[in-house]
Amino acid sequence: MNSENWKKSMQKHLPSKIAKFVVFICRSFYDFSIFLITLTGYIPLHFIRQFLYRNIFKVKIAKKTVIYWRCRFFKPSRVYIGHHTIIGNDAFLDGRGGLFIGSNVNISGEVRIFTAEHDINSPTFAGVVNPVHIHDWAYLATRAMILPGVTIGEGAVIAAGAVVTKNVDPWTVVGGVPAKFIKERPVVKYTLNTNKKMLFQ
């Protein structure tokens, strides 16, 4: 290949190579930030974790909220958590599509909340995102799973191990796979006590 052809070839491919490099750098930075926020979840002191979540990873956390250890995040800057809310140990909070958690919400250990999934009907298996909204006084029991696009109504209860694929009405209890209505819950509005917490978790 002579020098003229080589120059033309470089001019043709350089923009795509630069674009790929920029994408690689951005993706690497994002992946590393996810690694760091995962490590943060292992720090055994609440005030240090909260400081890092708020100021380094930009999780929007209101006052008097507790996030217990080993919580994992995707896109933490798009996770919003209200006042007096408790996030249990080993929870997974996916902010890719936007995750909005209200006040006085109790999310138990090992709960999984997803805001992104794949379209199985897409010829490219495309990814799709949809926000999840969890309103005040909701209670998500251990190992419940919330799928993208779901709204959990005020005061709703999700039973342990339930898989929620559709919106849940306020002040109702649902359970099962997929989650279905079980009964109504009385309207009880309280403030969760987040001052007492397990110190090293």
Keywords:
alpha/beta, UDP N-Acetylglucosamine Acyltransferase, domain 1, 201 residues
What does this protein look like?
The chain has 201 residues and is an alpha/beta fold. A hairpin with a 4-residue loop joins β18 and β19. The chain is built from 2 helices and 19 strands. It has one domain: Hexapeptide repeat proteins (UDP N-Acetylglucosamine Acyltransferase, domain 1). A 7-stranded mixed β-sheet has the order 2-5-8-13-16-18-19. Strands 1-4-7-12-15 form a 5-stranded parallel β-sheet, with helices on one face. It is globular. 24% of the residues lie in helices and 25% in strands.
Determine the N-to-C terminus distance. Answer: 64 Å
Main beta-sheet annotation = 7 strands, mixed
Mean pLDDT: 90
CATH fold-level label: UDP N-Acetylglucosamine Acyltransferase, domain 1
Number of helices: 2
Number of domains: 1
CATH C-level class = Mainly Beta
- What low-confidence regions span 5 or more consecutive residues with pLDDT below 50? none
The proportion of strand residues reads: 15-25%
Fraction of residues in helices?
Answer: 10-25%
What's the order of the H and E elements? Answer: HHEEEEEEEEEEEEEEEEEEE
The strand order across the widest sheet is 2-5-8-13-16-18-19
Report the radius of gyration as a whole number of Å.
Answer: 21 Å
Categorize the overall geometry: globular
CATH architecture: 3 Solenoid
Kindly name the structural category: alpha/beta
CATH level 4 superfamily? Hexapeptide repeat proteins
Number of strands: 19
